[in-house]
TrEMBL record:
One of its GO terms (biological process) is L-valine biosynthetic process. Pfam families: Aminotran_4 (PF01063). Keywords: Amino-acid biosynthesis, Aminotransferase, Branched-chain amino acid biosynthesis, Pyridoxal phosphate, Transferase. This is Branched-chain-amino-acid aminotransferase. Belongs to the class-IV pyridoxal-phosphate-dependent aminotransferase family. It catalyses: L-leucine + 2-oxoglutarate = 4-methyl-2-oxopentanoate + L-glutamate; L-valine + 2-oxoglutarate = 3-methyl-2-oxobutanoate + L-glutamate; L-isoleucine + 2-oxoglutarate = (S)-3-methyl-2-oxopentanoate + L-glutamate. The modification N6-(pyridoxal phosphate)lysine is found at residue 215. Its EC number is 2.6.1.42. One of its GO terms (molecular function) is branched-chain-amino-acid transaminase activity. One of its GO terms (cellular component) is mitochondrion. InterPro entries: Aminotrans_IV (IPR001544), Aminotrans_IV_CS (IPR018300), Aminotransferase-like (IPR036038), B_amino_transII (IPR005786), BCAT-like_C (IPR043132), BCAT-like_N (IPR043131), BCAT_family (IPR033939). Signal peptide: none annotated.
Length: 393
């Protein structure tokens, strides 16, 4: 607390103030908004009453953080964020537990990923522990906004923007770090509907040595046009491919998994390895850990203890997927991420043909369903697992 961080100011290294949660000022809104009925919520449309905000300047360092009424912020038109996309963000969710207390899911992972993203675009460093204390405080202040129902939560969006008001291309030594919140319901309104994917190889989301492994805003703008094309062709999301051999990477802004029948009767549950082109998702990591724990701890509901699951981080090509599908061994495909948690895939369009997955009544296969149910239970504090659900006091 009250510590310093070292930042480069030109060629000079300087000691400036780190983030300090003990300096938080809280300025509550005089007029609180009406909370919309939860059935009417669509993702990211409604913002809560307050936001958390702090600024960085190269002489002082991080300002005292403030929780204040939600509203516009003022940034110079020459600001680095507008000109050179020095913007990074996180996505996390808060739930109300059976004890009535708000909680976050593995929030340290988000704080650490935010710091790595900031570093990748030369934004200033900050104490991830101090930021987590502040995020917890914001969630506590906004707890009346957390809808209490399965599939509902408060989406929390930490953001850092570079605000150096100068046009020369260079690191932004001014920044604003803010956190906003938005109540949200199930990703797909109609429940857990399986989605269709359009496999894209003429545009790439990420590449070796690129920035796909970081949550940088600049990774998303180039995905919007291919996504619109996919929708026009009748598909819900893009399946991003990479390279001559058409390696499968991610689906939309989710990590991709497939379930494959093994010769020995078990199931391989495969996702691409973190080689720099894949976003290291919190849900991806949680999925791999839950799969590895089953069946010795019977952690996945609805799957029998004799179902042998083999989590694997392996590269897969479209040729692999097509072959597995032809052999009848491609049992499930699904995307995982904070927003939707688990989304089943029903078909994948590739080179003018569809790969169809076995359809399931619920829209989800047994592995996707088990993961979805268990992850929600852990997030809502109904199933204690490895301290993943963290109470905000
Ligand atoms: C955010 C994101 C994910 C999912 O990460 P989580 O931490 O699980 O929310 C996956 N892929 C991309 C490209 C993302 O931006």
């Amino acid at each position: 607390m009250g510590g310093n961080i070292t930042v480069a100011n030109g060629s000079v290294e300087m000691q400036v103030a780190d983030l300090d949660a003990s300096k938080l000022r809280i300025n509550l809104s005089q007029t609180l908004k009406d909370i919309p009925a939860k059935e009417t919520l669509s993702f990211g449309q409604t913002m809560t009453d307050h936001m958390l905000m702090m600024t960085f300047d190269p002489v002082y360092g991080w300002s005292s953080p403030e929780i204040k009424p939600y509203g516009p912020i003022s940034v110079d038109p020459a600001g680095s964020c507008f000109q050179y996309s020095t913007n990074v963000f996180e996505g996390m969710k808060a739930y109300v537990g059976p004890d009535g207390k708000p909680r976050l899911f593995r929030p340290k992972m988000n704080m650490e990923r935010l710091a790595r993203s900031a570093s990748r675009v030369a934004l200033p460093p900050f104490s991830t522990d101090e930021l987590l204390k502040l995020v917890k405080k914001l969630v506590s202040v906004e707890s009346r906004w957390i809808p209490v129902a399965k599939g509902y939560s408060l989406y929390v969006r930490p953001t850092i923007i570079g605000t150096k008001p100068a046009l020369a291309v260079g690191p932004s030594d001014h920044a604003i770090l803010y956190v906003i919140c938005s109540p949200t319901g199930p990703w797909v309104r109609s429940g857990q509907k399986a989605i269709s994917l359009y496999a894209v190889d003429e545009h790439v989301r990420s590449w070796p040595g690129g920035t796909g492994g970081f949550k940088l805003a600049l990774n998303y703008a180039p995905t919007l046009m291919p996504q619109a094309v996919a929708q026009k062709l009748g598909y819900d999301q893009c399946l991003w491919l990479l390279g001559e051999d058409k390696k499968v990477t991610e689906v939309g802004a989710m990590n991709f998994f497939v379930v494959v029948q093994r010769e020995d009767g078990g199931w391989d549950v495969i996702t691409p390895p973190l080689d720099g082109t894949i976003l290291p998702g919190v849900t991806r990591d949680s999925t791999l850990k839950l799969l590895a724990a089953h069946p010795s701890k019977s952690v996945l509901p609805g799957l029998s203890d004799s179902d042998k699951l083999h989590p694997q981080e392996l590269q897969m090509t479209m040729a692999d997927l097509r072959k597995l599908a032809e052999e009848g061994r491609l049992l499930e495909a699904f995307g995982v991420g904070t927003a939707a948690i688990v989304t089943a895939v029903a078909r994948i369009g590739f080179e003018g043909k569809d790969i169809n997955l076995p359809t399931h009544e619920s829209g989800m296969g047994p592995v996707a369903q088990a993961l979805y149910d268990r992850i929600i239970d852990i997030q809502m504090g109904r199933f204690e697992w490895e301290g993943w659900s963290v109470v905000c006091e």
